[in-house]
Write a structure and sequence with these properties.
Layout (H helix, E strand, L loop, with lengths): L8 H26 L7 E7 L2 E4 L4 E5 L7 E2 L7 E2 L2 H25 L4 H34 L4 H29 L5 H27 L8 E6 L6 E2 L4 E6 L4 E8 H4 L7 E5 L7 E12 L9 H4 L3 E8 L1 H4 L7 E8 L3 H4 L1
Antiparallel strand pairs: 1-9, 1-13, 2-8, 3-5, 3-7, 4-6, 6-8, 9-12, 10-11, 10-13, 11-12
Helix pairs in contact: 2-5, 3-4
């Protein structure tokens, strides 16, 4: 049999590389076929609207129970600034409130119960004496009509009845006076005004204490902290930065030829590396001006460079898979149905 010509080393290397090259091309084709990303996808990124939590009052940072990366719930404590002065003001205001309440009770109260009971007993005795003197007067009137007693005896009985009636009226007046408040109306009104002022001062002091220990306004991720415990915090300086899921949004850029078809509420779908399933969102903003303006009069080529900023918000659940600064590819799905708009 004729012998085959020996191949050169270069030829052998080319033949050996062909299977590897074929495998790479097949993998690239398979990856392109399996990818869900549209060639018309718009480029964008994720942006977060951070909530900077601060206190309107300065002081030494006393507590910082959260750290960067923590997840907090609405109402969780974020930090506390030293508030001994404000707490003392609360205690002082509370004491003023109690003193004002005691003053009103003292001015509005009647005499002691034992004194009132004694006066009521005196009134009861005077009523009994009046009943006896009235009965005696009636007897004297009958005897005088029969001629058994003199006119002087009848006059004495009438005088005794009038005296007992006056004593009963006096005793009843003393009971009424004892049951009324010992303060005059203007004094009571002034005491009530002082109580309202004390309550307002207490509320103001308590509010300052609360403002020195803010809580989370919503469920959020702690993005960063800017002070350490023991450091002096200026008034109004942010101490904690929060990122609620609903504050994440997609920002992407649409060519000027396509921006006219976009409406607020239109649905878009975003994809990103490592996000898994696509993320649906709704357009919430379309920029009224282009992001790039060429320095010459618009021509065919210049118009192709014009892009408009568009923002869309995903649901808080879907936003949990996103991170600020993350690149995304966005596709427009179309306008929402009337039911979805409602």
């Amino acid at each position: 049999m004729p012998r085959r010509a020996a191949r050169s080393p270069r030829a052998r290397r080319i033949v050996a590389c062909r299977p590897a090259l074929a495998c790479l091309l097949a993998a690239a084709a398979l990856s392109a076929a399996c990818s869900d990303r549209s060639p018309d996808a718009l480029q964008g990124y994720v942006e977060g609207e951070f909530v900077l939590v601060a206190s309107p009052y300065g002081g030494t940072l006393q507590r910082l129970p959260v750290a960067r990366g923590d997840t907090v719930k609405r109402g969780d404590a974020l930090f506390a600034i030293e508030d001994s002065f404000e707490q003392a003001a609360v205690d002082e205001a509370q004491a003023r409130v109690q003193a004002a309440q005691a003053n009103i009770e003292n001015l509005s109260a009647s005499r002691r119960v034992a004194e009132i009971d004694a006066l009521r007993q005196q009134a009861a005795a005077a009523r009994a004496s009046l009943s006896l003197s009235e009965e005696t007067l009636r007897q004297q009137q009958r005897l005088r009509a029969q001629g058994f007693v003199s006119q002087a005896s009848l006059d004495a009985a009438r005088s005794a009845r009038d005296r007992d009636a006056a004593q009963l009226a006096q005793a009843q007046a003393q009971v009424r006076n004892a049951e009324t408040s010992i303060g005059r109306e203007p004094e009571i009104a002034a005491a009530r005004a002082e109580l309202e002022a004390a309550r307002a001062a207490h509320e103001q002091a308590a509010t300052r204490v609360e403002q020195k220990a803010p809580t989370a306004p919503a469920d959020a991720l702690v993005s960063d902290t800017y002070f350490r415990v023991g450091e002096s915090v200026p008034a109004g300086a942010p101490v904690v930065s929060l990122l609620p899921p609903q504050n994440l949004k997609l920002r992407f850029f649409v060519p000027q030829a396509q921006v006219g078809a976009l409406r607020i509420g239109d649905a878009v779908r975003a994809r990103c590396d490592g996000c898994g399933a696509p993320i649906d969102a709704r357009i919430v903003f379309v920029a009224p001006r282009a992001e790039y303006t060429p320095p010459v009069i618009y021509g065919e080529h210049a118009r192709q460079k014009l892009v408009f900023l568009v923002e869309a918000r995903p649901s808080p659940t879907a936003a949990a898979r996103l991170h600020p600064g993350q690149p995304v590819d966005v596709e427009r799905l179309g306008a929402p149905q009337p039911e979805e708009r409602r």
